[in-house]
Design goal:
The chain is globular and about 65 Å long. The chain has a five-stranded mixed sheet. The chain has a four-stranded mixed sheet with strand order 6-7-5-8. α1 links the parallel β1 and β2. α4 crosses α13, α6 packs across α7 and α18 packs antiparallel against α19. The chain is α/β, with parallel strands linked by helices. Helix content is 47%, strand content 12%. The structure holds SN-glycerol-3-phosphate (G3P).
């Protein structure tokens, strides 16, 4: 009988189809092992389900966790709940070379000894999605600065585009990446990488001004808020919105769903009051964590599956069909050799942004305890700005205060 491995993921639509295909293709190559790929809802739902299942002793072997949950999973690892990936591979006798992975990706998921804890699978970065047809009709170029975003939104509005500008995952795109892109920390202690004592500082003038500018665009009908995750995707697909900042991983779905206009992706806009040129963006998406408490043959199976999905062929396929970045240098090279970027201009935007400059302490990423809850707080406070109930200053001060309380709670529980 084959070793059975449960793999809980949060990939819906096109992404889910490819994830399930990987499991099926891998299963077809193995006489000893079977991966059961199961969709468990969005990132938060999947993570919550896995934690509840762990408490009940009914947990899967592999769980996909978004980057926001990294500190929480690491803390769970300190309590013995996690089987670190470097150890999993070692115990399964699989030669695993972390240097094959892109530094911008892997540095997010290593411990202080540089050991890889979870497997990078779907890493993304936010990009500026644009409706080329609508921009051409309004007579404007793809904006490169925030002033140009504003001007383009005005031109689009005048040309009948209802909510010219929008975005999703607002903490990730408008605070975390906005800060990294301009080489500004959003918290002390190297954005949490250097210690649990980290405190948020994203109520600084630069971020306050940025959020206030978007609020004013909203009042002028230039920005239309559409929800916390990917909810505003529909606005872009149906043409109501022509400039949309969200994950590079919308590419696969857009290719299928957008038929009546030309779309593209470009680098995130720069705030020229803060920097002449961008620093680098930071990743999002998710990694695969392995949970303790199962049998060795099943773990060997999980390790073989990890090896399989990391191979250049699978990685290049995943990257080219989803918009997630290639997580290994070999997959990036393969995509280049295959002529993918030449044939599909803009599809290397996320990876170029991530590797634009050597990451600094302010731009290498963020690692915060209780960050799933902190993201909810930030969402609530920003929504109060978009609805006109709070100024950017009031909302960001409140978000920092409430966020810091959650950080202290995490620090106390884990030190
Ligand atoms: O849509 P994804 O998978 O790129 O994830 C976006 C954000 O990073 C989630 O926190």
């Amino acid at each position: 009988e084959k070793a059975q491995v449960q793999f809980w993921h949060a990939m819906g639509g096109t992404l889910g189809e490819i994830t399930d295909k990987f499991a099926a293709d891998f299963n077809a190559t193995s006489d000893t092992c079977e991966i059961n790929s199961i969709y468990k809802g969005n990132y938060t739902e999947n993570m919550t389900a896995a934690i509840a299942a762990f408490r009940a002793g009914q947990h899967p072997h592999i769980v996909q966790v978004f980057e926001v949950g990294t500190a929480t999973m690491m803390a769970a690892g300190d309590q013995g709940a996690i089987y670190p990936v470097y150890k999993l591979m070692e115990d399964a006798g699989i030669d695993f070379d972390p240097s094959a992975y892109l530094p911008a990706v892997i540095s997010y998921y290593t411990d202080t000894d540089n050991n890889l804890l979870s497997l990078p699978f779907n890493s993304s970065s936010p990009v500026l999605w644009y409706n080329k047809t609508a921009l051409d009709a309004a007579g404007v170029d793809v904006p490169e600065t925030w002033d140009e975003v504003h001007a383009a939104a005005e031109a689009l509005k005048a040309n009948g585009v209802e909510k010219p500008f929008s975005f999703g995952w607002q903490s990730w795109t408008q605070i975390e990446n906005f800060s990294a892109w301009h080489d500004m920390p959003m918290a002390t202690e190297e954005n949490g990488f250097a210690g649990l004592g980290t405190e948020f500082t994203f109520n600084n003038e630069a971020v306050v001004n940025h959020i206030q500018r978007i609020a004013e665009m909203g009042q002028d009908g230039l920005f239309g808020y559409g929800g916390r995750r990917g909810d505003s995707r529909a606005q872009f697909v149906n043409g109501e919105t022509a400039l949309w900042i969200n994950s590079s991983a919308y590419y696969g779905g857009f290719k299928q769903d957008i038929t009546d206009f030309e779309f593209g992706q470009a680098m995130l806009p720069v705030d020229t009051d803060l920097a002449d040129a961008p620093q680098n963006s930071i990743i999002g998406g998710a990694t695969l964590w392995v949970l303790q408490g199962h049998e060795q043959p099943e773990y060997t199976c999980a390790a073989e599956f990890f090896q399989y999905v990391s191979e250049p062929e699978q990685q290049a396929y995943w990257h080219q069909n989803t918009g997630y970045v290639p997580i290994t240098t070999a997959a990036y090279e393969l995509s280049r050799e295959q002529g993918f970027y030449e044939e599909n201009p803009g599809t290397d935007t996320a990876i170029k942004q991530l590797s634009l400059n050597t990451p600094t302490p302010a731009s290498k990423g963020v690692r915060f305890g209780n960050f799933v809850q902190v993201r909810d707080v930030i969402n609530e406070e920003l929504e109060a700005v978009w609805s006109g109930d709070k100024t950017a200053r009031e909302a960001l001060d409140a978000a920092v205060e409430r966020g810091n309380a959650l950080l202290r709670k995490f620090e106390n529980a884990n030190s």
